[in-house]
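Example 3.2
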Amino acid sequence: MAIKVGMVSLGCDKNLVDSERMLYKLRSHGYELVTEFGDSDVAVVNTCGFIQLAKEEAIETILEIVKLKEEGRIKKIILTGCLMERYKEEAVKEFPEADAVIGIGDNRDIVEILDKVLHGQKIVRFSSKNDVEMSGERIISTLPFFSYLKIAEGCSNRCTYCAIPMIRGNYRSVPMEDVLNEAEKLASYGVTELNIIAQDVTRYGSDLYGEVRLPELLTKLCRIDGLKWIRLFYCYPERITDELIDVMAREEKIVKYLDMPIQHSDDDILKKMHRPSTNAKLRDTIRRLREKMPDIVLRTTLITGFPSETEEQFNNLAEFVKEMQFTHLGCFAYSQEEGTPASEFPDQIDEDVKQHRAEIIMEQQAEVVAEYNQKQIGKIKTAVVEGFDKWAECWFGRTEADAPDIDGKVFFTSEKPLQIGDYVQIEIIDTLDYDLLGEVIS
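Structure, written as tokens:
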């Protein structure tokens, strides 16, 4: 009987791609993949270790699985991912129940490690970060019509609050031919929506080719048959060039949506964050995007309570965000991460103040979203079908204005039968909090 393996992938979509590569290796070597840990012989946890909340989630997950092992429902536990990479010695010490604790550079050897664990060996291994597998076969674990395409590993931006360079190493682009081959393969599997990801998508190619090659890569991706929507994530505003904007505006397959994490709008705070933007540069980038693509949907993320952030600087940030009218926005209280320069900065802000400021931004954003959604009523939108809600007795999906898992939904009725992955025309008839309501038009 085949050994059953369950895996949980925590954190970001970049981590998910790593998990999908491990899943492919395991299945190819005869292991049976299951979705519930209670049904598995072996549990693999691919952890996140980016900020405090992610670390807490990872630890809670591990402790739940340890309990299953103590109850005899799971035989072996393998821990990997960013939390293990970041806290090597501590992880080995804190989780003695784990049969293997490995770094991100060892995921490529997941089959060999699992084989050894099943034969009674305890594995502790942390290979070089540069050994992370940057291409290769995957099992698509998302809905079958969309997938993520990771075009680089690591980060060289060295923002003072961020632990990613410590965990993942310097920025390393995937060779363009490998990216295109993977995209073609995904399209051949039925993927129609491709979400382009990296720690900094806009830096793509600079390390390999001596110049940024993102516009060229996007142009070539748009030539792949079968793809309908191509979406860009994690674009640093200071690297959004006129060439990139022109490609986005010209290519029909590139959805007019851009994820552009700005983190703050105050010049002094941005400088302390080691972000090259300024308030004026941010305004100019947003202006250029909207001039070329008036209907572009902009998503951003912000940090409140960065060390030394004054009440005036926060109020200026809130005013900037209100003025810019981002369609989607996430705001997080600053997380003081050990090992990062900002963790040693003076004038750390009280936790309650940080959280309160984040709440103010999100309350303000709810008003922006409500106003935006109200303006969509009466419009005809293309949406992709994600499923049927049997309780509400209607279909649901997303328009190109909404990214998978993080943005809103559209709920709609249809007189004709639909399939998951269908693209349909919907008339928006009402709103529901962050979501839209509509009906399929013939």
